[in-house]
Design goal:
By secondary structure, this protein is an alpha+beta fold. The model is unreliable at about 575-585 (pLDDT under 50).
């Protein structure tokens, strides 16, 4: 076994790999960019080496920098994690040239499966069923259009390189094809450096089921059962579970055998995943989608039901050892389900968020596993993927696993930036999700219902109590005239605020009395008695005898309150609502919906534009967002420049309407 291994990644996967290295007594070497100097994986490793600036191209994606770090620290092997260089054939070859073991399959297998067009051709020859679609490489736009016509609408455009849903586009109408091709190529080029696309028939109501495979250098190839990954947004998984609630034992065996043949077809070694698409109404009919030649984000659910450490098995195979088990040794125990915690706003189309983590509390239930890459006071920027952590629950059956996971999410506190935690709880409570009636379009169909949640009135009341506590003088002797809302001739005076929580309309909040015994009015509701105090760093508020505890943190003008897995950013003034202004027929500023980089500017100063016309494209955390004109008008004060970085809510340009 190796004595020293470098982990060429960051975040939760780097932490997870380092933990296995420590358990095995192997010296761990971390690498980091300037943005990650205080990151958890840096602190956890035995040695840490700086790669370069925050930009991934100058740090985590720099093959010379990573190889140099490994050589300088005496690392015998490099574990790439997932993403970044994990499926880069040039990196795998560079490791070999430097005399360093790449913890992954041979470069030939990565190359064969990394090109989706070639991968389909390879597995089809091995008898694995594939989705109907284009089978040629390097198609230009005209050839792609012809291929779409041959396959028939609806179709799915997919980058030949890479994965994770980046650059994928569903196309249902011929008039949408040209823009879809341009957008898919642009995003693929930015994410993978390769804008080659392929076309596949779009399977309606599909389920995404993948098989975990393992192979060693001694001829053993086996599978560890399946994972269901059908709950997705933007073609990217957010919930994964094992085993699938769809498959029977016979279907599992058939799909597992096909996955093993796909791995054998390319001489695979190490851990990998063969992904299939299955019609929800025809689970006996499955099609090969792609093979991920690396560890998957969702590998923990397989570990939980098999009791195996996949990172340890990767290391043993890379060291030349035979796998310590055979197919008949694989047994699945219970059920495991995982959710991905993202820095994103589900109500705004899952746009990335960012900021400083002001408060963080993770679940402590022993039946729940947390793979996290963040710490309190850490900064979540726009340079990397928005995934912050994974929460995994195991149970005797699916119902118990979901129940434990929901409870764990309710106990999780993350304040300082928007996350999808509340959304995940709503998703897990959906009757179809509970019953296992899943498909990859379910999230898209239900997202509005899961995010259209009114602001609980107790949140603003708790914010008012917090402000009252902040204003009340401290000390054993208090002048009643110094108390806000305190004693006055006639009756106590009201203290008023105009409060708003992000995503909700402003509301007038009035409160009077002491925090220990106050009266509060939210909008036009009836007054209610409240009392509040601070206890163990939390804000405890009693509403007519019922107590609620809130995690709270202040940053500038914003008060963050959290309970039951939800978090609210409360301010005393309403932010500029450009969308409402546009809906009223007015022009105004076009704001960046997220911190990121401007990649495309389609307009010029003084240009006449029509409502819905594309203006600017902003990219952040590997996701691009197209900004369009809210109304007919003229472009004024154009500040957006291709390649420039922008903050959230930064004004990129102004649309001036006629007569404005």
């Amino acid at each position: 076994m190796f004595e020293s291994v470098l982990v060429a990644n960051r975040g939760e996967i780097a932490v997870r790999v380092i933990r296995t290295l420590k358990r095995l007594g192997i010296r761990s070497v971390a690498v980091y960019s300037d943005a990650d100097v205080d990151a958890p994986h840096v602190a956890l490793a035995d040695v840490a080496v700086r790669l370069g600036p925050a930009a991934a191209a100058q740090s985590y994606l720099s093959i010379p920098a990573v190889i140099e770090a490994a050589v300088a620290t005496g690392a015998q092997a490099i574990h790439p994690g997932y993403g970044f260089l994990s499926e880069n054939t040039a990196f795998a070859a560079a490791c070999v040239d430097a005399g360093i073991v790449f913890v992954g399959p041979p470069a030939s297998a990565i190359e064969a499966m990394g090109d989706k067009i070639r991968a389909k051709q390879t597995v089809a020859k091995a008898g694995v069923p594939v989705v109907p679609g284009s089978d040629g490489a390097g198609l230009d736009d005209n050839a792609l259009t012809l291929a779409v016509e041959q396959v028939g609408y609806p179709v799915l455009l997919k980058p030949s390189a890479g994965g994770g849903g980046k650059g994928m586009r569903e196309v249902h109408r011929p008039e949408d094809l040209a823009d879809a091709i341009a957008g898919a190529r642009r995003e693929a080029r930015g994410s993978f450096g390769d804008d080659t696309l392929l076309v596949e028939r779009l399977i309606t109501t599909p389920r995404h089921i993948e098989i975990q495979v393992l192979a060693d250098e001694h001829g053993t190839v086996l599978h560890l059962g399946e994972r269901e990954c059908s709950l997705q947004r933007r073609h990217q998984k957010i919930v994964e579970e094992a085993p699938s609630p769809l498959l029977t034992g016979e279907q599992r065996a058939a799909m597992g055998a096909a996955a093993v043949e796909a791995a054998r077809a390319v001489g695979y070694t190490g851990a990998g995943t063969v992904e299939f698409i299955v019609g929800a109404d025809a689970p006996d009919e499955f099609f090969f989608m792609e093979m991920n030649t690396r560890l998957q984000v969702e590998h923990p659910v397989t570990e939980e039901v098999t009791g195996l450490d996949l990172v340890e098995l990767q290391l043993r195979v890379a060291a030349g050892q035979p796998l310590p088990l055979h197919q008949h040794d694989v047994r699945l125990h219970g059920h495991a389900i995982e959710v991905r915690v993202y820095a994103e706003d589900p109500a705004a189309g899952f746009l990335p968020t960012g900021g400083r983590i002001l408060a963080l509390r993770e679940p402590t239930d022993v039946s729940v596993r947390v793979d996290s890459g963040v710490v309190e006071d850490g900064v979540v920027g726009s340079d990397y993927d928005p995934m912050l952590a994974k929460i995994i629950a195991h149970g005797a059956d699916r119902e118990q696993a979901i129940r434990r996971l929901d409870r764990a999410l309710g106990e999780t506190v993350l304040l300082g930036l928007g996350t999808n935690i509340g959304f995940l709880r709503a998703l897990l409570a959906d009757p179809d999700v509970r019953a296992g009636r899943l498909d990859t379009g379910l999230v898209g169909r239900r997202v509005d219902a899961w995010t259209d949640v009114e602001l609980p009135p107790d949140v603003l009341a708790a914010a008012a109590v917090h402000e009252l506590l902040e204003l009340e003088p401290a000390g054993p002797v208090v002048d009643p005239f110094d108390v806000p809302g305190g004693w006055r001739i006639g009756e106590p005076a009201w203290t008023k605020w105009q409060m708003t929580a992000a995503g909700h309309d402003p509301v007038e909040v009035r409160i009077r009395g002491r925090a220990a015994d106050a009266e509060v009015v939210i909008g036009d509701t009836q007054p209610q008695r409240v009392s509040g105090s601070r206890r163990d760093g939390a804000l405890v508020v009693r509403f007519q005898g019922t107590a609620r505890s809130y995690a709270c943190a202040q940053e500038g003008e914003t008060l963050w309150l959290g309970r039951d897995g939800q978090a609210w950013a409360v301010r005393e003034q309403a932010p500029l609502d450009a969308v409402a202004a546009a809906a009223a027929g007015a022009g105004g500023p076009v704001l960046s919906p997220m911190p990121g980089t401007v990649t495309v500017v389609d307009v010029t100063e003084g240009q006449q534009v029509s409502a819905g016309q594309r203006l600017v494209v902003v990219e952040a955390m590997k996701m691009e967002h197209v900004l369009t004109a809210p109304v007919d008008g003229v472009v004024r004060e154009l500040r957006a420049r291709a390649g420039s970085t922008v903050a959230r809510d930064a004004a990129l340009l102004i649309i001036e309407t006629e007569g404005a």
